[in-house]
Amino acid sequence: MANPSQWLEEGAGRWPPRPPGPYSEAQRLALEELVAGGPEALRAFLRREQLPPFLSEPEVQAIARGALPPAAAPEPAAEPFAGASLDASSLTYFPDRSDLEPPALELGWPGFASGAFRGLTRVEAHFQPGCGDSIYGCKEAVRRQIRSARQMIALVMDSFTDTDIFKDLLEACSQRQVKAYILLDQSSFSHFLKMCKDLGVDLEQEKLMRIRNITGNTYYTRSGAKIVGKVCEKFMLIDGIRVTTGSYSFTWTDGKLNSSNILILSGPAVAHFDLEFRILYAQSKPINLKELSSCRKNKVLDQVVSITVASRDLTRENFLRMEFLYLRAFVGNLKRKRSWLHASREAVYVSNNAMHASPPLTKRNGSLVMRPHWIIER
Fold first, then answer.
1. Which is it for the CA torsion 24, 25, 26, 32, positive or negative?
2. Residues 6 or more apart from 200 whose CB is under 8 A from it?
3. Is the four-CA dihedral 183, 187, 189, 195 of positive or negative sign?
4. Residue 344 vs residues 284, 331, 337, 370: alpha-carbon distances, Å
5. Of 204, 165, 187, 175, nearest to 296 (Cα)?
6. What is the pLDDT of residue 148?
7. Dihedrals φ, ψ of 267, to 5°?
8. What's the CA gap between 149 and 160, in Å, rounded?
9. Angle at 119 between CA 116 and CA 121, to 5 degrees
10. Contact status, residue 256 vs residue 96, Cβ threshold 8 Å
11. What's the start-to-end Cα distance of the chain, in Å?
12. Dihedral of CA 340/341/347/348: which sign?
C-alpha cells in the first residue's frame, strides 16, 4: 500500500485520500451542531441540509448530555516509563510508534508463542433464563470458569456490580494465588467502587489484582469539546486457554432478570481475545488507589458516587462538583503547621514576609479543619 508521500509523488488518486470506513462529512457537521447548540440545533441542521436523521432520540440525548466542554488548560503529558526507549519517537508526520511504552502486565501473563497450541476447539453455549435445572445458566457458567482458574483471569466488562462473582474473584486471588486483571468502562466505574465499599474491600490491599479504567473512541469537535464512547466488549480470559464472551454483564439484573447468553471458547480462537485484551490494557488508564482511600476516610467517596449514580452522565456541572469534593478531601487532611499550603492558590505562608492572622478553624467530623482564607503580602 502506498504511503502518504507516494500519493503526492506518483499522483495516485486524489489527495488527501478518503478516510477508510463509512465516513460522512455531513454527519460530522451535524454532530458539531448537536454539541454546540443541542438537539434543536441538530434538527434544524438536518432540515436545512435535507438529511435523514441518523441518530435515535436516546443517542441524541446521551451525546448532548455527555459531551465534555473544552478543558481550561491542556492536560499534562504522561510521564514516560522508566523502561521507555529514547528512540521510540518518530520524526515523520505519520508516526509508526508511540513515544511511551505501554503499561506492563506486571503480575505475569501466560506465555504462548504465535500459533501455539491452546487446546482443542470447543464451544459451549449458555442462555439465561435457561431450561430445566439450570435456570441461571450464564451466571453459573461464569462462576465455574472463575473457580477453574489456576494462573490468570483477564476481564473486560462494561458494568461489574455482581457481588457473588466479585467474591469468587477475591477467593481465587487470595486462596489460589490467581492473578486478576480487570478493565472496566469508565462511565460505570463508580458503581464498582460503591460495591467494593459496601463489601468492605480495600482494593489497595489486593496485591494480585490490577484494576484499570477504559473508554471507547473519543470524538473531538472543532471547538475542543469531546464525546467519549463507552466500552461494550464483555469477555473473560481464563489461563490463556479459555474465553467466556457474550451479552451477559456481571450485574444482578443480568443474572436474575434480563435475557442474555454467553459462549465458552477454547482452541485457536482464544488467541484473538488474548491479543485484544493486551491492546485494551495498553489503552487503559490506572486508578489511584491511595487517592480513593483518602476519599473514603474523609467520607467524600459517598458524595462522589451519588453524583455519578444520579446523573449517569458526566456533565460539566457534575464534573466540577466532583473536582470540588476531591479537593475538599485533600484539604481536610492538612495539619496546622508553620507553613500553610493553600491548594486553591498554591501559596505558602511565611511569617517573615506576610501579615497573616491565625487561620480560621472549623470543627468537622470531630477534627479541626482549616477554612479558606487570604494571605496579604507586605
1. positive
2. none
3. negative
4. 30, 10, 18, 13
5. 204
6. 95
7. 105, -160
8. 19
9. 110
10. no
11. 68
12. positive
Distance, CA of 79 to CA of 325 (rounded, Å): 26
Q: Rounded to an integer, what distance in angstroms lies between the CA atom of residue 346 and that of residue 341?
A: 7
C-alpha cell at 130: 435457561
Written in H, E and C, the secondary structure of the chain is CCCHHHHHHHCCCCCCCCCCCCCCHHHHHHHHHHHHHCHHHHHHHHHHHCCCCCCCHHHHHHHHHHCECCCCCCCCCCCCCCCCCCCCCCCCCCCCCCCCCCCCCCCCCCCCCCCCCCCCCEEEEEEECCCCCCCCHHHHHHHHHHHHCCCEEEEEECCECCHHHHHHHHHHHHHCCCEEEEEEEHHHHHHHHHHHHHHCCCHHHCCCEEEEEECCCEEECCCCCEEECCCCCCEEEECCCEEEEECCCECHHHHHCCCEEEEEEECCCHHHHHHHHHHHHHHCEECCHHHHHHHHHCCCHHHHHHHHHHHCCCCHHHHHHHHHHHHHHHHHCCCCCCCCEECCCCEECCCCCEECCCCCEEEECCEEEECCCCCEEC
Tens of pLDDT, residue by residue over 62-109, are 999 888 888 744 454 444 444 444 444 444 444 556 666 778 888 999
State the virtual CA torsion across 335, 300, 156, 63 in degrees, nearest 10: -120
User: Which positions of the chain have pLDDT values less than 50?
Assistant: 1, 4-5, 7-12, 72-74, 76-94, 304, 307-313, 334-378
Q: CB–CB of 240/274 below 8 Å?
A: yes
Cell reading at 4 = 502518504
The three grid cell numbers given for residue 64, joined into one nine-digit string: 448532548
Taking the C-alpha atoms of residue 135 and residue 304, their distance in angstroms, rounded to an integer, is 37
Q: What residue type is 59 in one-letter code?
A: E
Q: How many CB atoms lie within 10 A of CB 367?
A: 12
Instruction: Name the pTM for this structure.
Output: 0.67
- What CA–CA distance (Å, rounded) separates 212 from 285? 6
**Tell me, what's the pLDDT at 356?**
40
